[in-house]
Amino acid sequence: MKNLLLLLLTLLFLPASQAQNVPINPKWINGFWEARWIIHPTAPAQEYGVYHFRKKFDLATVPSTFIVHVSADNRYRLLVNGKEVSLGPARGDLRHWRFESVDIAQHLHTGENVLAAVVWNFGKHSPAAQTTQQTAFILQGEGEAEKIVNTDVSWKVVQNEAYSPELKSFWDLHTYIVVGPGDIVDGKKYPWGWESSGYDDSGWVSAGQLSTGQGFGRGTDGNWLLMPRDIPMMESFPVRLQQVRRSSGVDVPANLLKGTTSLTIPANTTVSMLLDQTYLVTGYPEFTVNGGAEAEIKVSYSEALFDANRQKGNRNEIEGKEMRGYADRFMPDGGENRVFRPLWLRTWRYMQLDIQTGDQPLVLKDIQASYTGYPFEEKARITTDQPWLSDVWKTGWRTARLCAGETYYDCPYYEQLQYVGDTRIQALISLYVAGDDRLMRRAINDFEESRLWNGLTQSRYPCQKLQLIPTYSLFWVSMIHDYWMHRPDTAYIHSLLPGTRAVLGWYETQMNSQNLLKKTLWWNFVDWTDEWRNDPDAGIGGIPVQDAEGNSSILSLQYAYTLRQAEELHRAFGENYYADRYKKQREQIVRAVYQRCWNSEKGLFSDVPGQDIYSQHANMLAILTDAVAEQEQPKLMQRILEDKSLIQATFYFKFYLFRALVKTGMADQYLPQIQPWRDMLDLGLTTFAEKPDPTRSDCHAWSASPNYDLLATVAGITPASPGFKTVRIAPALGDLKQLTASMPHPSGTISMTLDNQGKKLKAEVELPQGLSGVFEWKGKEYPLSPGKNLVKI
Q1: 225-228 vs 97-103, strand pairing mode
Q2: pTM above 0.85?
Q3: Are 335 and 281 in contact (CB under 8 A)?
Q4: CA angle, 401 as apex, 617 and 488 as ends, to 5°?
Q5: 170 vs 125, 248, 325, CA distance in Å?
Q6: pLDDT digit string (tens) for 691-713?
């Protein structure tokens, strides 16, 4: 039995070794490590600090493989003989702490070699997404040959006193920003060359050591339960800033940003340079300088510039606008080829350098950067006879890319937190555009691991700050339903059903005698509408109006929406007791909403029984839950679109508005509905914003939804059965005449070309082997077989 359990655990974690393309001995997954967690022996364990660890070792010959497994708290960057080989660990929590596995053989040579790691802990200033126990580092060799580098007291360590947190620029933003502090680096205190073999580390101390590493499910002390990284390493490639938009104090050479010319700033000079990437990017900026003792370089980062009223306006315009953004500060020591790179990634379109030199000139040798993000590959394509849609597609895909790292992000600049509401939409984009489900699985598991005593998932996870948005727990169930429809992975889905029942079990206890939800605890966020700007009791916005008993058609209907998905999931796995229970609850809720909130004179559902408050949200959810008869749904949908007195959905909840369009057979009206996305392009945005201006975030994951809808709604490609075992293609072209699209499928690629001449349609559809389905046009279905299909209508 023990051996069987070990085998099952090994198979469970097999994707991790595949993701990193190196083998992992099962005992490092299932058992105790021989390496120990090591620390600085005298430094505070949980306070802000940056540390360097080093291990010298000799090799008589260079091995063909040399695999090490490595992790740290909070973060590490591992170098071998001065070359970066790993950056991590992938974020999780203490019960699910990730380690990376890397083969470093190609970076080794005969004689003395150096393993070096920088490990940092931002302490009380850590990003909200970063969980922590204390500063520590661990490295385990895979086999006998590699064990010479296991972390123990033979490693040396020093605290880098050059670092301190930059906080003032964050406070000056006066908004919710939780990505961690900027870096202040005093070059005079920096141990330059610490990562190289020739560096003299005689002044360093021997590392202190804690317990050995322990695999998930082992040990009793609850320290970092180690699990293999189950997503790929992040993608990285060089990028160059594109333009110097304005400068003062010095003439900037034309080729400075190309890296072919340096800039010398005289002594005792004040210089400012506004640099424009021309598009938003996430990554690591890097500055190389000579000289400049007593100088200070402040580097500020922003998505956009601001006018005197703190408004952004057109993002391409800079006249009368100023930089408002978080910053790093670097004080060179006067040496040659000093490189500044922040510890953690930055997000910017605009970057401003404010430099003050002392008595020595400063030579700015190079300004460059490296993009970083999850390695999604753009496999889907769509082209039409309306070129503006290509711009929407490109901008949406950049938005999705910048909102995906070791987890999905709601936004890369302000939070870098994985929220369920954003993540459901992001995950569908990942499936449709990249055909990659690994980060989606990771997210589903993260939220499963976040569930609390009451059965709800946390609204965002991993996260050190507890936040509950019950409506997001419902969308977690929707994510599981999405995965079930798109991936043939029934055993995994079945394992998640107890978690869905826990969420719905909490909701069941929140029903009142009227079969609607009572006034529940926590943040019942729905959408960032202006009318729901602030709940006086909760002190936060986005919550629809409720009466004294809590009654809200919106919140109750979202519960009913999820109950239908849960019913389908449980029915599919033979869990009919729960399926019947969820069906009965759903029917009771939609009947109560109709009886108490339907206004026959207006032909609309009110948000609250007996109150004259109406929104798109209540009415689109009424369609999605069949609270109104199916034959009446198109009329209701038209009212939702035309009645501007309704509280309007913002970019986030328009995703569900578009689901209602599809359900009512009115998807041909989709393209006019994304005019707000065209408006963002006209404002110079290079990613899609959190909400219509004025907006905090210029890059927000949920607003990338057109990259899903252009394929799923306009091209009309959706699963016709669970696991995407069959396909339904029901194009909604609107006024498009030509469309060519392709997208990844678990069995291969679905591709199609449509020629729409009004009364005539020619469709060429190619399906991968093993996939069949139907092509639907104006209510009629035409069978599709594997291979090439020609449909003429």
Answers
A1: parallel
A2: yes
A3: no
A4: 75
A5: 11, 25, 7
A6: 999 999 999 999 999 999 999 99
